[in-house]
Design brief:
The protein is of the alpha+beta class. The protein is 40% helix and 23% strand. 32% of the residues are buried. It catalyses: ATP + protein L-histidine = ADP + protein N-phospho-L-histidine.
Length: 505
């Protein structure tokens, strides 16, 4: 970090330069979106932003991981970056007096790490930043390669801002537009309102090995992999018909004959009456990222497979030990059922491909519970635990706690409660209530309940720990004469903590 206090620009100069770009409050554009996605991937962060600092707000031309277009200036990290010469890196926001009390830091799952490179006008006035954020601290900051990549992409953002302004003045600046487009790392193309391709930048011809004019009109599709052509045409026709942005991944033939995975995006440019006057698009080579993702997926699946084997080995060891110590048979059976419950939770949330997808259903709370209660059926396989109410998105951070809670509930009901009687059943109602998510377990048709037990067993303690210790909720038991009622009152974010962490940001 370097001091920029001696810079000659004033706040008035800065705001004048920012507004001269004509970029504030414009629609999203693929070229800027590509940059933030690449920045997040290279820096391995959940959030990346092209951020412009106005007088009383920070506005995002492009963002990944936030889901909003602007936020108040009071909570902005980037406004502090304007005081630096080139960049600002905050390894741990909680340890930095400027940010320790920031609500974006103090909130659950709040930001801890920030790195931003300044976006500067031609005369050096800072307009905003290209920045990345993470919810975990990084004492070592970014690697030299990551920092250099962020600087290059920040320069590219400014090139795109200049390019965008040049396109708005097409009649006066066609030559400048060509120069700027040719300097971009992406392949840039443009079409008439009817979709006729009449412009490709130099990068397109360099990548594909074609000559100017040879891919105009519809000839561009000949460079697509035969298996991807019809799909690409369908998506492009839909965009032309509706005016919606075009986005697709396909394999594009390189000049050496190899097909590379490419991300194609385009946005319609409209006149004052809302009529489309041009389409501008980009093609970004994402083949290397695809290979990295495949490698990570294979490693993740291999780790998941080994964890699954560990569950099986542990369960077998418990069974073997029980055979050597018959007096521990009851304890062994109880422990094995709990291990199996955890294994089912892991099977539900483990990484998988379409081929290896688990058979327990979609990633929702109801799908998970239905799979867990499948062994508890009545005559002709009718379910005896009946689910109703609101469903919820569900992730692996909540799976273990929920699995242990309802495994204990169902096991106790089968031993002592409603499921111990042939005609007994259980209803489980789930509902959203403002910022809470409520689950109510109610037993019917079981043995009469004479009151609460005189002591809490291990299963009861485990259930309470799962709800109150792991999920941050409250667990209440009502020992009614007609049957046990258990109410779990959870924060609405407890079942999907990763999504909640990003939304909080």
């Amino acid at each position: 970090m370097t001091d920029a206090s001696t810079s000659t620009w004033t706040e008035a100069d800065r705001l004048k330069a920012l507004r001269a770009t004509g970029i504030l409050d414009t629609d999203r554009e693929p070229a800027f979106d590509d940059i933030v996605e690449l920045a997040a991937s290279l820096c391995e962060t959940p959030v990346a932003v092209v951020n412009l600092i106005d007088a009383e707000r920070q506005w995002f031309k492009a963002e990944v991981g936030l889901g909003v277009r602007e936020t108040p200036l009071e909570t902005s990290f980037c406004r502090h970056a304007l005081l630096e010469a080139d960049r600002l890196v905050v390894p741990d926001a909680r340890e930095d007096a400027r940010f320790a009390c920031n609500p974006l830091v103090t909130a659950e799952g709040g930001f801890r790490f920030y790195a931003g490179v300044l976006l500067k006008s031609d005369d050096g006035a800072p307009l905003g930043t290209l920045c990345v954020l993470d919810v975990v601290p990084r004492p070592e900051g970014l690697t030299p390669v990551q920092l250099r990549a962020l600087e290059v992409m920040a320069n590219q953002v400014m090139t795109l801002l200049d390019l965008r302004r040049g396109l708005a003045r097409e009649r006066a600046g066609n030559a400048r537009f060509d120069a700027l487009a040719d300097s971009m790392p992406q392949m840039v193309w443009s079409t008439r309102p009817d979709g006729f391709h009449d412009y490709f930048n130099a990068r397109w011809h360099e990548f594909t090995g074609t000559t100017p004019g040879s891919t105009d009109g519809a000839a561009w599709s000949d460079l697509f992999h035969p298996e991807d052509r019809e799909r690409a045409w369908d998506v492009w026709r839909e965009s032309l018909a509706t005016g919606e942005p075009y986005e697709i991944e396909y394999r594009l033939r390189r000049h050496d004959g190899l097909y590379r995975w490419t991300l194609g995006r385009a946005t319609a440019i409209r006149d004052d009456e809302g009529e489309i006057v041009r389409w501008f698009g980009t093609c970004t080579d994402i083949d290397d990222l695809k290979q990295i993702e495949r490698g990570k997926e294979l490693v993740s699946q291999e780790l998941s497979h080994r964890i699954k084997n560990i569950f099986a080995v542990v369960s077998a060891l418990v069974a073997l030990s029980a055979r050597q110590h018959p007096e521990a048979k009851a304890f062994s059976q109880s422990l094995r059922t709990r291990i199996n419950a955890l294994a089912r939770a892991h099977e539900f949330v483990r990484p998988h491909t379409e081929v290896s997808a688990p058979s327990v259903g979609a990633m929702t709370l109801h799908a998970f519970l239905e799979a867990m209660f499948r062994p508890y059926t009545g005559v002709q396989g009718t379910p005896r635990v009946l689910l109703s109410g609101d469903d919820a998105v569900f992730d692996d951070q909540a799976a273990t706690s929920v699995a242990l809670l309802f495994h204990e509930m169902a096991t106790n009901a089968a031993k002592y409660g409603a499921l111990s009687e042939p005609d007994g059943w259980v209803t489980l109602e789930t509902r959203k209530a403002d910022d809470r998510f409520i689950l109510v377990w109610r037993e019917h048709g079981g043995p009469p309940v004479t009151g609460a037990p005189t002591r809490a067993g291990f299963g009861t303690t485990l259930s309470t720990l799962s709800v109150e210790g792991q999920l941050g909720g409250r667990l209440e038991r009502l020992w009614l004469a007609e049957g046990l009622v258990v109410k779990a009152d959870l924060p609405a974010t407890a079942l999907s903590r990763r999504r909640a962490a990003l939304k909080t940001a």
